[in-house]
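Render this sequence as a predicted structure.
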Amino acid sequence: MLLIYAKTFIITMFLATAAGEVGEDDLNGVSDQIYGVKINKCCELDEIMVDSVCRLVKLFNESAWEPEFKTEDGKVAKVKYYNYITGVPDCETTQQRPIFDLGKSEDELKLLADGRLQHLIHHHHSVGQIKDDLLITNTYSIHEAIALPEAKEPSSYIHDQAKYCMDKILITSSNMTGQYALVCIPEVIINWKETSFLMKKILNPVFHAIAMVLYLLVAIIYFVLPTLRDLAGNIITTINICLIVSQAADLVRIFTELSNHVSFMVTDIILYISLLGAFFWLNSFGFYIWKTFKSRNVFLRVTDVRKYCYYSSVVWFAVGVMAAMAICAHFLLDSGTNPYKKMRLSNTIILEDVEQETIGWLGIAVFFTPVAFTIIFNLFFYVTTLKVIKRINIYGRIHYKLKGCFDLFMQLFLIMTIAWLFLLLSWLNFDGLFYAHIVVNLLQAILIFYVCVVRQSHVTFLLRKSCCYAEPIPTGEWGDEMTHMNGGNY
């Protein structure tokens, strides 16, 4: 009897031990599955990328994406458990860029065993492809030229988890499959001693800030001082406000790594509309002077407030019409006829919809063609008004004031036209022209402040009177009547 109990106890203990070992193995397996390598997948589990859009796998007779893990040196790595995290990466304020690994492309995507993504760039350039690629060989560009790397050794960058997503892609036009990744643009190592970085990333924003301050001072002076709030002063104030807006929009475009698709488009539209408004207001300034000198009686004039309302309605209506035409031309005509719109293989990544980042050439042409016409009209106003002034023998107070406005108009016209021409030249892919545009942009603000404030004797007198002579010096020798009078020097 004792022998039977002993055997039963031994068998029970053996079975319990075996069951415990199996349960521990199962728990370890479940734990490995839960805490496996996390893979960032762009689409849902039953979807793949089809022409950069997520589509169901079953609709295209393709297999789902299966991740292939490799080491950094290219060897195959085995990962037993991994989990998918679907969705695009969270890039916060930086840009996103798609990368295509299509087998024969320069880009190679390696999914590492720890869940990170290695982007390997092979610098193999086909001479024929480079010559045929209009986006690479185009000398005239509103952005920096694509620099082809000279290094023969491949370069690489590793993207951490949550900063990329990966999936299978199908290109329907060529029936080609490959790997697709959407990554956050990494931080670029900055060489503080490079001339390009100093000019474009340091001096350029500093010069923009200084220019905005100078334009703001001119606008405040002509808006605050009551004597300067006539039609000419209001036009000068409006021109400077337009220039402030254009400088602010251009300042946003300097830091391209902190922008995205929408902000590029919005800042471009704001920049070109404000520049167009500034030149239209300058043209209205010249038209006002020309029309006043051509009139037989300069004393019979409509009040400045009513005239400013007339000019404002005409100018902003014209600006709105031209802006609408430019935007429609960009979205409806420029993008649809460009064969390079959909995608293009670059030396590092495939840039998708390159032209859509900013206003295209057709939109810029619609924006800037009216500016060229305003320059022609301003030349006409200058020549004809100068002939009228030479024929006038007797100058009255109003004639003298209008002649001062005419001189100011001509100076503003020269300054803004030269700055606009340097802006056009800066779009050529020559660093020297772009650096010249940066300097001229600051000189434009300095010269406008000089001709509108410093060079105008009546403006400086009003400033001194408002800032220095508003309160008389207290003294016991003056009576009550003299105390309340202006104590300025006459």
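Summary. Residues 197-455 form a domain with the Rhopdopsin 7-helix transmembrane proteins fold (CATH 1.20.1070.10). Residues 261-294 form the longest helix (34 residues).
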